[in-house]
């Protein structure tokens, strides 16, 4: 999958963020070979603190296609996966993750985050292979979080 494909699927994740504009963490999981969207998800932490956008998408993927070769999947997410989500991506066997907004940006604008980058989690997980691609449509994703911050100051 090339840069333009990354932008196409990141745009889908950005669209999904409209389902939770106050917490615009959203994800789409795509099959690398076919380009088909396998599953989608968005932040549902109001219902369950563990239901980050990536976790919701992974749960939906498992329900829809439990036997799929997950090494051929790419997870697109509006923000860099937190350590919990990056760990879930690794444990689920997803072969790549592509994100827009960085954890560092979220921290800089006052969002509560665990300051461990996704690529560090992936690098420190021997036995797993997961490519991490940062900064795809970063400014558009950053705007999602800036808008959410403006709507709920003091986040």
Strand order of the largest sheet: 2-1-3-4-5
> Main sheet?
5 strands, mixed
How would you state the average pLDDT, rounded?
Answer: 95
Per DSSP, the total helix count is 6
Shape, principal axes of CA atoms: globular
By secondary-structure content and strand pairing, the structural class works out as: alpha/beta
Low-confidence parts lasting 5 or more residues at pLDDT below 50? none
Topology record:
Elements: H1 3-16, E1 26-31, E2 37-42, H2 53-64, E3 73-79, H3 83-92, E4 96-101, H4 103-108, H5 118-123, E5 131-133, H6 138-151
Parallel strand pairs: 3-4, 4-5
Antiparallel strand pairs: 1-2, 1-3
What report would you give on this structure?
It contains six helices and five strands, in the order H-E-E-H-E-H-E-H-H-E-H. It is α/β, with parallel strands linked by helices. It has a five-stranded mixed beta sheet, with helices on both faces. The protein is globular, with a radius of gyration of 14 Å. The N and C termini lie far apart (about 35 Å).
Summary, kept brief:
This protein is an alpha/beta fold and 155 residues long. The protein has helices spanning 3-16, 53-64, 83-92, 103-108, 118-123, 138-151, and strands at residues 26-31, 37-42, 73-79, 96-101, 131-133.
Features:
single chain; 155 residues; alpha/beta; 5-stranded mixed beta sheet; 40% helix
